[in-house]
Design brief:
19% strand, single chain
Length: 289
């Protein structure tokens, strides 16, 4: 290779962004700062109406940019991966940042295990100012790569922004589902059918928390649950029950906060959500009491 020749592309870093002008620069910078030869960065501007376009233009040819009408993050990811040239796909959300070594360590884990199709890591939670709220966030009983039975029994914590996977597994899984936002977890479960996972216990990502007011309203799991039921049936009953239980508890907490503020309408809405996810929730509370 000549002195000025570029190394072959091994990893395509995928960053979807929608109205993320205030954070996407930090995400891109954290990818550019990785000590890794052979990375391409593809950013999909998913119909932003703020000045995201201008921010992306400032990076020139250091990134590849795709402009599209707003279709959701999973559709944006799919559009980028269709154009990707790397053997591996690394996911990065526009409001998160990678820590040093995130790319090289996840790629190395995949290379060490020929049976592995996906590697992911622990992460740190940070607030909107970038200050660490919590380190090493994955519970001890989930701090290992899951078997197929485990991933259908427990709600496994795999953040997209921590994931590096083979591009071939994305194709085998049919890409990310686009029927609703934030069902990327479904594709990760399907991916486990085709190969092993590698888990890196150290935090390699800073995950930015959304508004605490959103709580369980940030992601509606109904479409995800429907996908799981259709594909796995009773085998995934443990996973579905855990998701429903966690959502019922989260909406109950939100209902109590609304009641304490005198917001009766919001409290009623949240209690209806509680009974949607767990009709026996009130009975269980009385039994515990």
């Amino acid at each position: 290779m000549s002195e000025h020749a570029q190394p072959p592309i091994r990893v395509s870093t995928i960053i979807p962004v929608y109205n993320g002008a205030t954070t996407v620069g930090a995400a891109i910078d954290s990818a550019l700062a990785q000590e890794f030869d052979g990375q391409e960065i593809i950013v999909v501007n998913d119909g932003s109406t703020d000045n995201t376009t201008e921010v992306l233009a400032g990076y020139g040819d250091r990134i590849r940019t795709i402009e599209q009408a707003n279709r959701g993050f999973n559709a944006a990811r799919n559009a980028a991966i269709e154009r990707a040239t790397g053997e591996y796909i690394a996911l990065l959300d526009a409001d998160d940042t990678w820590l040093p070594g995130r790319l090289s360590k996840t790629v190395a884990a995949l290379r060490r295990n020929p049976a592995a199709v996906l590697a992911y890591s622990d992460y740190e939670r940070v607030d909107h100012a970038g200050m660490i709220v919590e380190r090493s966030t994955i519970p001890a009983h989930l701090a290992h790569a899951p078997s197929m039975n485990e991933i259908l029994t427990y709600w496994w914590i795999i953040l997209p922004t921590t994931v590096t996977m083979t591009r071939s597994i994305w194709r085998r899984c049919g890409g990310f589902p686009t029927q609703a936002s934030a069902v990327d977890s479904f594709m990760f479960i399907v991916a486990r059918e085709y190969g092993e996972f590698e888990y890196l216990a150290e935090p390699l990502v800073k995950y930015r928390l959304s508004s605490s007011e959103l709580g369980p309203d940030k992601w509606v799991p109904d479409v995800f649950i429907r996908h799981i039921r259709e594909r796995y049936g009773a085998r995934a009953s443990g996973l579905i029950a855990e998701i429903q239980s966690q959502y019922a508890a989260a909406f109950a907490s939100k209902a109590l906060r609304a009641m304490s503020r005198g917001n009766r309408k919001e409290a009623v809405r949240c209690w209806l959500k509680v009974f949607h996810y767990d009709p026996l929730y009130a009975f269980k509370l009385m039994h515990i009491g």
